[in-house]
Design goal:
Number of strands: 0
Order of helices and strands: HHHHHHHHH
Helix content: 55-70%
Distance between the termini: 48 Å
């Protein structure tokens, strides 16, 4: 049995779905183009295409928010909530010591995406990473890929199936654990196919067989990222276990008080 609390406050409208799909396609192209170029091509570094990807993801987030506003899915109160949560998420990310996979903003992003919906979660992930990069000075060719990765975490949280009570918290714990590993495995792809410093058994082979490259990536991941990602996964599972219930209640109470789930209607002025 489910309750009203298991549904997203801000549901997606058709134009929002289209904007999210376009944004995800752009992100997949950004991550994936080095894998499909000809073996004799000079693939170069992502520093060449990162600025364009950065501009693209910001424009797409604007398009998502605009589509939500135009279709009545969001209003100015929801945009204000987006700004507040982005500020909190960026503040949490500044606690990251840069080692050990410590990413506390994942916890907030997953719960916010769960409560407010996939479009809100996608936009929140992008804004959190942008604000964090500007605050910490972590701006570089990796940033747009981090923005997409975190945005997909928020998007996925908003797409989780309905559940309530302990079932919902277990669902979020499993999702937090999967994201801890999945985010790291995805983010490696921004540089792995173009890294020239890796040993032969862990590097990408342009034009090589799929199984060969998968085995090489498995070696690379196990020897470099697995420990960091495990720490991220464990941390966020524990945060969901300990604090998900009160924070979910708080976010849903704030949404109800702001009437974010109320349909937007326009009435003619009576003279």
């Amino acid at each position: 049995m489910t309750t009203r609390n298991s549904t997203a406050v801000i549901t997606l409208r058709p134009r929002s779905v289209l904007a999210l799909a376009l944004a995800s396609v752009v992100g997949l192209i950004g991550f994936g183009w080095p894998f499909v170029v000809d073996a004799s091509s000079a693939m170069g570094e992502h520093s060449d295409d990162a600025p364009y990807l950065f501009i693209g993801v910001l424009l797409l987030v604007v398009a998502i928010v605009y589509a939500e506003l135009a279709d009545g899915g969001m209003d100015v109160k929801a945009v204000a909530m987006l700004g507040v949560l982005a500020a909190v998420g960026a503040a949490l990310q500044t606690l990251n010591p840069g080692a050990g996979g410590f990413d506390p903003a994942f916890f907030l992003l997953i719960l916010a995406g769960r409560v407010f919906g996939p479009g809100f979660g996608f936009a929140l992930g992008v804004v959190v990473m942008l604000a964090t990069a500007l605050i910490t000075g972590g701006v570089g060719p990796w940033m747009p890929f981090q923005m997409f990765g975190l945005a997909w975490v928020g998007l996925g949280a908003g797409c989780l199936p309905r559940a309530s009570g302990w079932a919902e918290r277990w669902l979020l714990m499993v999702y937090a654990g999967v994201c801890g590993f999945g985010y790291g495995a995805l983010l490696n792809l921004w540089f792995w196919p173009v890294a020239s410093f890796l040993p032969a058994g862990a590097s990408f082979v342009p034009g090589g067989a799929i199984l060969t490259n998968l085995s090489h990536y498995a070696v690379f991941y196990a020897t470099t990222s697995l420990g960091w990602d495990a720490a991220r996964a464990v941390l966020n599972v524990l945060l969901v276990l300990v604090a998900a219930r009160p924070l979910l209640v708080s976010l849903r109470r704030a949404a109800r008080r702001a009437a974010l789930d109320a349909p937007v209607t326009l009435e003619a002025e009576v003279r």
